[in-house]
């Protein structure tokens, strides 16, 4: 059997950075790790319509900082910043120790080439019973129109279009050098809850090669 390796984990420390950045004692590591998972789950649940691509969490002894990357920042901020204040109240209930909550919203300018945004858009269409072939074709065509995407691959698996047996279908265009460590590949797994069951979605987006750049600097530049 083939051994599957996550394109993100394969490139950590090279061209990709960590989504959680903090140091902790052994006793607090477990609590902080679980807290990070709950915070991300909360943000993605509360901001389903905001097209949130990712949530980076930074911790210091006195503060917890959330960097939320979204293609629709106005929905998160709300009128007069009310949305951020409400989100802070929910996050403060999850944090295990008293600390200041900071939330920074970053806009994704080229959302058509972001794997998470593509997967969320595909899930919304599949849940509305749009044909999976049409959904995949539209996702690929839109991504290739972007200036950043040089290749894309999308895959769906499950009871597609209500079929009796589950199967896997995929579509790819352009380059996808998965074995090249310097290749900047954006990858995401997502799920669509259809009336026939759960349909799994995977999206790979190749954005070119990176030479002599640190992961953190590249990550910020790609999103901003």
Question: What does the model show?
Answer:
- The protein has 224 residues and is an alpha/beta fold.
- It is built from 7 helices and 8 strands.
- The termini are far apart.
Summarize the topology.
Elements: H1 7-10, E1 20-21, H2 26-46, E2 52-59, E3 63-70, H3 73-77, H4 82-92, E4 100-107, H5 115-127, H6 132-144, E5 151-158, E6 167-174, E7 183-194, E8 197-209, H7 215-223
Parallel strand pairs: 1-2, 3-4
Antiparallel strand pairs: 2-3, 5-6, 5-8, 7-8
Quick recap:
The protein is an alpha/beta fold and 224 residues long. It contains seven helices and eight strands.
Q: What characteristics describe this protein?
A:
224 residues; 7 helices; globular; disordered C terminus
Residue fraction in strands? 25-35%
Give the strand line-up of the largest sheet.
Answer: 1-2-3-4
Can you give the helix content as a percent range? 25-40%
| Overall pLDDT level | 88
Number of strands: 8
**Strand pairing plus helix content: what structural class?**
alpha/beta
Outline: globular
The helix count comes to: 7
Largest sheet: 4 strands, mixed
Quote the distance from N terminus to C terminus. Answer: 40 Å
Helix/strand order, N-terminal first: HEHEEHHEHHEEEEH
Low-confidence stretches: 214-224
Radius of gyration: 18 Å
């Amino acid at each position: 059997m083939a051994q599957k390796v996550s394109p993100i984990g394969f490139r950590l420390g090279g061209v990709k950075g960590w989504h959680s950045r903090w140091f902790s004692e052994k006793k607090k590591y477990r609590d902080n790790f679980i807290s990070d998972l709950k915070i991300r789950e909360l943000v993605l649940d509360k901001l389903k319509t905001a097209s949130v691509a990712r949530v980076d969490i930074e911790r210091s002894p006195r503060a917890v900082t959330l960097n939320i990357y979204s293609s629709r920042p106005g929905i998160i901020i709300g009128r007069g910043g009310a949305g951020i204040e409400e989100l802070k109240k929910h996050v403060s209930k999850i944090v295990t120790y008293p600390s200041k909550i900071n939330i920074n919203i970053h806009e994704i300018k080229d959302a058509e080439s972001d794997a998470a945004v593509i997967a969320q858009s595909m899930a919304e269409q599949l849940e509305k019973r749009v044909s999976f072939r049409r959904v995949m074709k539209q996702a690929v065509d839109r991504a290739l129109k972007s200036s950043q995407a040089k290749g894309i691959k999308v895959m769906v698996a499950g009871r597609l279009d209500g079929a009796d047996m589950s199967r896997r279908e995929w579509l790819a265009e352009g380059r996808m050098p998965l074995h090249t460590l310097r290749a900047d590949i954006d990858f995401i797994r997502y799920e669509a809850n259809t009336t026939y069951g759960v349909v799994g979605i995977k999206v790979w987006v190749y954005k070119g090669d990176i030479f002599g750049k640190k992961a953190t600097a590249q990550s910020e530049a790609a999103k901003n």
